[in-house]
Amino acid sequence: MLKLFENPASGNCYKVRLLLHHLGRPLERVFVDVTPGSTRPADLLALSPTGRVPLLLLDDGTPLTESNAILNYLASGTAYLPDEALERSRVLAWTYFEQNLHEPHIATRRYWVSLVEDSSPRANQLDFWLENGKRALATMQKELETNAFFGSDHYTIADIALFAYTHVADEGGFDLGDYPAIGEWMNRVREQPGFVPMG
Ligand SMILES: N[C@@H](CCC(=O)N[C@@H](CS)C(=O)NCC(=O)O)C(=O)O
Fold first, then answer.
1. What is the best residue among 4, 6, 10, 12 to mutate for testing ligand 1's pocket, by most ligand atoms within 8 Å of CB?
2. What is the second-level CATH architecture of the domain 2-75?
């Protein structure tokens, strides 16, 4: 069985669980504490170059890291990743956007404000993450004003990657009410067969 080293509050880990749920594939979950000062399990450190989660072990024990690379692997040959090269490239572009311009600001601000609840030493960083996170949400809003999904005419791993931290952005101090097209898209994501909430 697939084995996922993960934390239930992590959007990066949720992406993998959500896709596996869509695909109807069972998995064993291994809890990893990611709060500052916590230690990582030895087997995680031995298998992952960064020691970060998610880490997915395939049935034969092969380790996979990086949430969006894991999505790419698991979705290959399914409706969640287009076969056609141009469409696939457009879908992957949004997953790169997520890791470059979205997650570093929206997820990081949520982590410090809501999960660690210790933002005092990072006041200037909080402003930086807020400004750049809003820019990422505005980019998504613009795209969704003319498209139902990201990079494709149907739901793919681009939507899974972007949903993970967007739907909890309010926990990082972002007002999702400012982005109505994102709200409608999040409803479409929640309506997908096999959808499972974070946690
Ligand atoms: N780019 C990586 C980011 C992974 C990541 O930041 N994981 C966090 C949890 S969301 C983590 O393991 N933090 C603990 C640490 O850095 O030691 C991915 O998408 O998988």
1. 12
2. 3-Layer(aba) Sandwich (3.40)
